[in-house]
Amino acid sequence: MSNNDILFCRKAVVNRGSDTVAYYILHPVASSDSHNSLFLSALFVDVNLSEITQQKTIYIKTSLDELQALPLQNNIHAVFFLNAAELNEENFEILSDLRLQGHVLGISNPQVSDFSSEFFNIFTHVHFSLDRTSVNDVISRLAGPLLELKTIWVNKVETADQYSLLQEKLPVGQFSGNFIHKMTSVKGKRILAYQAILIDLLAALNNRETSPKKLAECIERDPTLTYRIIKLTHSAMYRSQFNVSNAQRAIEIIGIRDLIKWVSLVMLGSVDGKPACIFSMALSRACFCNNLSALLFPKLEGAFLVGLFSYLPSFLDEELEVLLKDLPLEENIKIALIESKGNLGGVLKVVKAYEAGQWSKIPFDHLIDREITQESLRELYVKSLKDAREMGAF
Q1: For 367-374, what is the mean pLDDT?
Q2: Residues of the signal sequence (predicted)?
Q3: Which of its termini does the chain have fewer beta carbons within 10 Å around, N or C?
Q4: pTM for the whole thing?
């Protein structure tokens, strides 16, 4: 696998209120400085990062040598984080010059006592990773005066206890990690009603004698769902020129094939107590699975639901096996979700590996047989982000 190929993913960074404030851009670990420099340069030149990250701040971990080789990007707000273990006071002039050029700098996992206040003031952001230190250690480090005015980003948040303590002790901090995808939800009647509607719709679709009228009766049990399905017919995806006044006519325009997809999106979008970034990530994964499956297995259906429903535990705080138990899904979809087996399971594994930046787990030697390269997979990922943004706006 060549590191000259652009391959990246984004992870949401949220504030105390769980709003997305930045995206952490992951890129391959290169074997030499020149490879990483080429990657960063290509990343800014070949990819519309402003569009992909919705004009939010982007966080990138890099080295001093890589950063020096990177031209200043005036149209993107990027913060470059340097590893404290690779820095010393002798780097002061170089770092000062980078600041004067306009670069925004952050420092990762520092021991504040190792640096002078003048040196430390070069950095506006400070990053701590909980796989390197504990929450209590992070909190104790923040007690020093040099960190009072810094933007603090804590990564690798893995548990509810870690997140709760950080929210309490670091009210203006920023957080990312696996637990950000699995926060405690506030369940209400609406999501339970949507689950019942979804079950009835899936059962009806499995009946070959089902008509649009029967499906409409399921949808019209909820006024909000009815409104959003009708509203969808006027989106750019369907371009209906008719005034649609009922769910049955909307179904005829949208098509029965797409109906479950949209009802599922409305259902997940209605969950209270979850950060908006989770819905965005679930939708991006669904689109990525759908687009990749279309290339690998053109006649295979269900990839969108596999990607979307893989996030069900993050929304509903329940094991996936339990959540799928009552859903009359096709067996290949359930196997893909629970056991990661079958063609759909393979698609999901590739997508998850890409999202996590686990490049070594992506079987490029097999994908190349289907004419899918590192570059084309990157383009597919970018397209999926755009598709997700369009779908999320309906």
Answers
A1: 87
A2: none
A3: N
A4: 0.57
